[in-house]
Amino acid sequence: MLEDHKNVRLISILDNDFYKFTMQCAVVKLFPSEIVKYEFINRGKHEYPEGFADELKKAVNAMSQLKLTKEEKQFLKKTCPYLDLPYIDFLEGYRYDPSEVHISQTGAELKIEVSGLWYRTILWEVPLLCLVSELYYSMKGMQRESDETIIAKTIEKEMKYKKLQVPFAEFGTRRRHSYKVHRLVMQALTTVKDSTFTGSSNVHMAMLYNVKPIGTHAHEWFMFHAAEYGFKMANSLSLEHWVDVYRGDLGVALSDTYTTDVFFQQFDKKFAKLFDGVRHDSGDPIEFANKTIEHYKKHGINPLFKYIIFSDALNPEKVEEITLACRGRIGISFGIGTNLTNDVGLPPSNIVMKLISVKGINNEWIPTVKLSDEKGKHTGDPKMIELAKEFLQIKE
To answer: What is the pLDDT of residue 361?
Structure first.
């Protein structure tokens, strides 16, 4: 089946990952004057057809009409009590400003840059990736599998997770094949009786299918703190500020922005007790689990009272392997993305959008970097990467 690219539009302001809203809430409170820049990264070297940038601009311009509806506001108030009313009122008045997005195309190469106040621009990343992914398949004329096949494949995967008795959530917004496929997947996930399916990272989908919106913070939260306060302070200050805003709610800490080893040096007993668990997003998942278990034990904490959310390129086989290695040792949960929302018989998108710089006090741009647990997959300014590795004493 083929979607019409002229109908590729977002229909809800909540069609976004939940952690974008939780981070926006924190940024509004703590960093209302900070200016940042994001950049699109085409990891998969996809070649975009002629006129792609023009169609993307049309979809982006249409986003200026999106606004929080009364029903959506009620959903947030009821479902997310840790998002306080002043923030939800702010979101009700928020409108996307397309002038913050700069899109150009040279041949098959697509360039996207977003810049402006952080509390405003923070919501652009995920919708832009959704639109790029869906437009790509549509404008290239790439035929996906049928609705029936996608539903059947999704239910088959869900039955495997049910058999393993592991909780899992849908995390596939940013690189989904299309909005239609996302709806098909959610429809399938919510029809299996006694399923271990727990919710979605997409707030719009969570509302439509009456499940829990899931998420806390992303790498950009830590990357910003590194640019603002220095690499050695990034992890601890990121966590402190998160606690200042949420007071113990939304207690899953992302561990790999500056490598897990560095993170655990700063994830002391206070944080280890206060946060419910950690999220794994790069590197060997079983090695990460072993490090996490040992870290909790070192601080006199029973790992079975904590949990890990695994979210790195998961599929049923990988989930089973991790489950067998971790069951009975620590709590586990899984956030499954592309394998749910872009398993349609076509090569999945491999695209990201990253925070690349923060404006300093003298109006100079300070580059941001991310030092993944995947060796050789560090992203950002090469000089800043070397500086971070030197400061944090990371040897490879």
So the answer is: 87
